[in-house]
Amino acid sequence: MTNAPDFSLAAALAATDDWDDADALEESAVDLDGDLGDDGDADDTDDGSDDGFVSGYADEPDPEEDPTVGAMELAERHQLRRVAQLRTELEDITEVEYRQLRLERVVLVGVWTEGSIADAENSLAELALLAETAGSEVLEAIYQRRQSPDPATYIGRGKVEGLAEIVKVTGADTVICDGELAPSQLRNLEDRLKVKVVDRTALILDIFAQHAKSREGQAQVELAQLTYMKQRLRGWGGNLSRQAGGRVAGGAGIGGRGPGETKIETDRRRINTKIAKLNRDLKQMKVTRDAKRSERRRNQIPSVAIAGYTNAGKSSLLNRLTSAGVLVEDALFATLDPTTRRTTTSDGRVYTVSDTVGFVRHLPHQLVEAFRSTLEEVADADLVLHVVDGSHPDPEGQISAVREVFADIGVKDIPELIVINKADLADPLVIARLRAREPHSVVVSARTGEGIAEALKLVESELPRPTVPFHVLLPYERGDLVNRLHQHGEISSIEHTADGSVVIGHASEALAGELAAYAVSGA
């Protein structure tokens, strides 16, 4: 079944008949001889006049220059985009459910239970951005004021009938609800609306599945999807209630537990087996990540974690601070895989900066659990740069949502610096309000570079400093220790003598232990 226009080979060939027509070519050709003399040479006279010609390539960057990793990833992501009104629909209801290779047309539904009407509208606006990021076209958005969602249909029987009319009139094929629906609510809505129904959790999981690139990120997303899917298995009619048993096990064969097992039980058991395997794989990946962290701890390298709401500009800030070259896109959850870069302070001390996955209101608990090992980068940091979108309609709500996730992953007693980003787009009154609420903050624009120098000074002042004093005489053959002191310690003074370098300063306990053998007596 297809909605594409009829194709005729004869009509297509007829449309190309005049392509080789000499008259058509002659009419469309550019007169290249207009400025040539009789002898065919170009007129070399220069009257000093400006013909207004400007090369289109005058100020363009060289396309042959090596692009950053982020630029290549962004180009790869944009190589395949779904286009509205161009669709190839394949429908087969004999199996589980139909698949449509097209830009989905969706209607958004929300239930307003608390807060102001502005909060409800902001939540639906964010849901619309999530839907567009997932690859859909938003046709309509409605919300209902209720004390609590209806336990059967989420929005109540009367509202379901009105929603069915909207779906029919707009031609929508998907309804997205701004909340996590119970399996019974999903089933009841689909039975009455006759279209696919998706909740907020499934929508976010779909975006994560599209954007995960690393092996660990893909495993984490798959684990979250399977955990979510396990309680929501459904099919056409009684398809999943069929029983399998004996030698005629309906294709189950070896691996079925015995007579009487239904298909839904078999599927759920296979999902549990896959979840167990993913947990084992993630534990092995966690060992590698922990080994890298322990190496940084052993060398006592301070770490800074960039965290915040999705699309607040975390990756742009990382690029500004470290020239990391990671992918930057104006989209929700554009980057999922954490990135760590090494950089130095103005006085030469080494520290690391890590970009983490973005947060969102009502972040699915399946994702929090699956990405716990990645989010531990925040819990283990010496300083958290909490990035806030100053141009967002509700930046205070973003701060509260991120801090809720911080509490879930156990981020406690870690210094936090609020970085109010997008100063070039934000309302000055909003920035003033945020700074009054969050005194320990800095205003920057990662796009223009405004405020970055001030932010770097605050970061350097917040980093832990070595506390053990030392006064040593280092032989010239121990230049490695002098280098480590420059990178991981603080040197107050250094004097080169005939016997070696006399160095005074502060170092970490481990480094001070290595320097003890060269301590100056009586110092």
What does this entry show, briefly?
By secondary structure, the protein is α/β, with parallel strands linked by helices. It has helices spanning 9-14, 22-28, 69-78, 117-134, 157-170, 183-193, 200-211, 215-230, 263-298, 314-322, 365-370, 372-379, 395-408, 428-437, 452-462, 479-488, 509-515; strands at residues 88-90, 99-101, 104-112, 136-145, 174-177, 196-199, 243-244, 261-262, 303-308, 339-344, 350-355, 383-389, 416-421, 441-443, 468-474, 490-496, 501-507.
Number of structural units classed as domains: 4
Q: Report strand order across the widest sheet.
A: 10-11-9-12-13-14
Overall strand count: 17
- Mean pLDDT, nearest integer? 78
| Main beta-sheet strand count, sense and barrel state | 6 strands, mixed
Notes on the protein architecture:
- The protein is α/β, with parallel strands linked by helices and 523 residues long.
- It has helices at 9-14, 22-28, 69-78, 117-134, 157-170, 183-193, 200-211, 215-230, 263-298, 314-322, 365-370, 372-379, 395-408, 428-437, 452-462, 479-488, 509-515, and strands at residues 88-90, 99-101, 104-112, 136-145, 174-177, 196-199, 243-244, 261-262, 303-308, 339-344, 350-355, 383-389, 416-421, 441-443, 468-474, 490-496, 501-507.
- The protein folds into four domains: 88-209, GTPase HflX, N-terminal domain (Rossmann fold, 3-Layer(aba) Sandwich), CATH 3.40.50.11060; 213-290, no CATH class; 301-462, P-loop containing nucleotide triphosphate hydrolases (Rossmann fold, 3-Layer(aba) Sandwich), CATH 3.40.50; 468-518, no CATH class.
- It contains 17 helices and 17 strands.
- The strands form five sheets. Strands 10-11-9-12-13-14 form a six-stranded mixed β-sheet, with helices on both faces. A four-stranded parallel β-sheet has the order 4-3-5-6, with helices on both faces. Strands 15-17-16 form a three-stranded antiparallel β-sheet.
- Helix 4 (117-134) packs parallel to helix 7 (200-211) and helix 8 runs antiparallel to helix 9.
- It is elongated, with a radius of gyration of 31 Å.
- It starts with 8 loop residues before the first helix and ends in an 8-residue tail after the last helix.
- Residues 27-46, 53-61, 82-101 and 245-250 have low confidence and may be disordered.
- Belongs to the TRAFAC class OBG-HflX-like GTPase superfamily. HflX GTPase family.
- InterPro entries: G_HFLX_dom (IPR030394), GTP-bd (IPR006073), GTP-bd_M (IPR032305), GTPase_HflX (IPR016496), GTPase_HflX_N (IPR025121), GTPase_HflX_N_sf (IPR042108), P-loop_NTPase (IPR027417).
